[in-house]
Design goal:
The protein is of the alpha/beta class. It has 15 helices and 20 strands.
Length: about 400
């Protein structure tokens, strides 16, 4: 089968990291990059509790782009096995089942919860985090019956959605109802990242929240708040007009444009009924601000703004996968007694009094017509055109890009 794989080769990595800073296209097009379209064997079922999925759609995530452009922190490398087929966002059809698989069968349309925790790894008894439902915080993501990998799409045994076939443990499989199409299916995973964050850090109806970033995750945060019928005020910071339009359509109350000038600082502060103060030198600060800030970008500028626009005693929730950030001013954290929360992927969350996998809650909301994310998909590409697909995903302004998916 065809698959796009990432293979760590230190000389190639070193060359690409150096040259890619001068010409980013070399991360994908250069003769020495770590990314290759290959003919590979279809992944085998690790045990009889696993299924094989024929992928229909495989999404390109911002974390995939960070990987390709070699921006990931080496801290995650113990939880990856090479070479691996990229891709953890997927929708498809079950094409094979192991002898011990129950409750799902060949031909069913499904999505995959890609986290490879204790149950998928055949580890018993499960670690404390998994036993409590926090399987995204599993202590065994580099051990068990399969190779290291935080997720499907970072493990050499499972395949990934940038290939024709993926294997998954039966516990990872979630069925798609008839009224949830495959376009929504491939967005269940990114929506679940936002949904988990909101369920873990829910706004009160009287709160004002600030969403920084209006890529797919930022829009999904807005969509999750509204799908959960939370009537708080939502203020959003965007870069492009097409993002502003989607933010409004999904339920934002006010939208502001990020600019290199400081105009947006005063405009956003005014929406919070806050004051802008000017230190003797440096960036302006905001006195007053949002009750909750959802930071969905992960760069120095967005983190600075997240801390700047949080109100006293407020909360900053980090979804943007920030890694190493130089010269980040931490003053507002202690000065305003801010609560800083990280959010990784999804797990078990409570919805209407019942504890379920976050991805199942996402599918339930789609089935109830609480949310339709299909408009977020702006580009479809065959696997062979992966260079064009990555270029479209990397150049949002040029191509008005939201979500790019491979159609297999």
């Amino acid at each position: 089968m065809k698959a796009i794989q990432f293979d760590l080769n230190i000389p190639k990595y070193t060359f690409s990291k150096a040259m890619g800073k001068l010409n980013p296209s070399l991360y994908v097009n250069g003769p020495f990059n770590c990314l290759q379209l290959r003919d590979v064997k279809t992944p085998e079922l690790p045990t009889d509790e696993w299924i094989e999925l024929k992928v229909k759609y495989g999404g390109i995530c911002g974390s995939d782009l960070n990987l390709i452009s070699l921006k990931d922190s080496p801290a995650t490398s113990p939880f990856i096995s090479f070479p691996f087929t990229i891709g953890h966002e997927m929708a498809g059809t079950i094409s094979k089942t192991g002898k011990e698989v129950e409750h799902v069968s060949v031909g069913e349309r499904v999505v995959i919860d890609p986290i490879l925790s204790c149950e998928a790894r055949g580890i018993t008894p499960p670690c404390r985090e998994c036993s409590q439902g926090n399987y995204n915080l599993c202590n065994h993501m580099n051990s068990g019956s399969i190779s290291p990998g935080l997720l499907t799409g970072t493990c050499k045994n499972t395949g990934g959605s940038w290939g024709n076939y993926v294997v998954a443990h039966q516990s990872q499989v979630i069925k798609l109802p008839e009224n949830v199409d495959d376009a929504n299916g491939v967005l269940v995973e990114p929506f679940s990242c936002a949904l988990h964050t909101v369920l873990q850090n829910p706004p009160q109806p009287s709160d004002t929240v600030f969403v920084i970033g209006s890529g797919v995750i930022g829009i999904c945060v807005i969509a999750a708040i509204r799908a959960l019928d939370i009537s708080c005020k939502i203020v959003v910071l965007v870069k492009y007009s097409f993002q502003a339009k989607l933010a409004k359509e999904f339920g934002a109350d006010q939208v502001f444009f990020l600019s290199r000038r400081q105009d947006y600082v005063s405009e956003v502060a005014e929406s919070f009924q806050a004051n802008v103060l000017h230190p003797v030198f440096g960036e302006p600060i905001v006195h007053g601000g949002a009750d909750i800030v959802y930071e969905c970008v992960g760069n120095k500028k967005s983190l600075d703004d997240a801390l700047r626009f949080a109100g006293k005693g407020g909360k900053v929730v980090l979804l943007g996968l920030a890694s190493v950030v130089d010269n980040l001013d931490m003053t507002m954290i202690w000065l305003n007694e801010l609560e800083i929360k990280g959010s990784f992927a999804y797990g078990m969350d409570v919805y209407k009094g019942k504890k379920k996998r976050t991805l199942q809650i996402a599918v339930d909301l789609m089935e109830q017509n609480k949310v339709n994310l299909a408009p977020l998909i702006t580009h479809y590409f065959p696997l062979e055109h992966y260079r064009e697909a990555i270029a479209a995903a990397s150049n949002k302004k040029k191509q008005n890009t939201m979500k790019v998916v491979f159609e297999l």
